[in-house]
Amino acid sequence: MKPNQIMKHLPHKTIERLSQYRRALLICLDSGKTHIYSHEIARIQHITAVQVRRDLMLIGYTGTLRKGYNVKELIDLIGQIIDATEGINVAIVGMGNLGRALINYFTGKRSHLSIVAGFDINPDKIGNTMSGVPCFGIDEMESVIKRLDIRIGIMTVPGDFAVEVADKLVRAGVKGILNYTPKPVNVPKDVYLEEYDMITSLEKVAFYVKMHEEEA
């Protein structure tokens, strides 16, 4: 089965884990490791080896009993499945501390995803370049997104502006939104939405800390 045919049948959680596998595999490759077993990947990702094998079987890749998985081959296959052939341009809306931190963290990490523009309402930021990314005014969003063929928008604005910004991104033609604001938003069915709430994630960690302490 070809990579584009595989993609249509992959669960969302599997796609998320494949990205995490690749990140771990790239570190292993840099350290000189050429082969890896499912239980090694599982230990790095804090999941079970059964889950790793199940995910990799879904993309049609199997290792050998003697050597396990070929690290370079697996990285390349995950790239064929996850990455867009021609690359995808990304914009960040909200060039505050979080927006700039995301740019700094992401730059150079993936060749098929490029943050090419930022948007803000602060006149002191508009017209400047931050970590190599030009900042435009919010009122320029639609024209800039179309001109630069931006297909993903990352929202790092205050929650009060979340709905308005999401609507602007949709009207401008983006097909994917990553929402880092604490406020949920609604988008049309043809726009993929991923919402990340840091408070929820922190509460999840706090829950497991509490459970551990109560058991102890």
Could you please describe the fold and organization of this structure?
- Helix 2 runs antiparallel to helix 5.
- The strands form two sheets. A seven-stranded mixed β-sheet has the order 5-6-4-3-7-8-9, with helices on both faces. A two-stranded antiparallel ribbon has the order 1-2.
- The chain contains nine helices and nine strands.
- It folds into two domains: 80 residues, Winged helix-like DNA-binding domain superfamily/Winged helix DNA-binding domain (Arc Repressor Mutant, subunit A, Orthogonal Bundle); 112 residues, NAD(P)-binding Rossmann-like Domain (Rossmann fold, 3-Layer(aba) Sandwich).
- It has 216 residues and is an alpha/beta fold.
Q: Tell me about the biggest sheet?
A: 7 strands, mixed
Strand line-up across the major sheet: 5-6-4-3-7-8-9
* The CATH homology group name of the largest domain: NAD(P)-binding Rossmann-like Domain
Question: What series of H and E elements makes up the topology?
Answer: HHEHHEHEHEEEHEHEEH
State the end-to-end distance: 49 Å
Q: What fraction strand?
A: 15-25%
CATH topology of the largest domain: Rossmann fold
The CATH architecture of the largest domain can be named as 3-Layer(aba) Sandwich
Which segments are poorly predicted (pLDDT under 50) over 5 or more consecutive residues? none
What's the rounded overall pLDDT mean? Answer: 90
Give a count of the beta strands, DSSP E runs of length 2 or more. Answer: 9
User: Into which percent range does the helicity of residues fall?
Assistant: 40-55%
CATH C-level class of the largest domain: Alpha Beta
Using only C-alpha atoms, the radius of gyration works out to: 20 Å
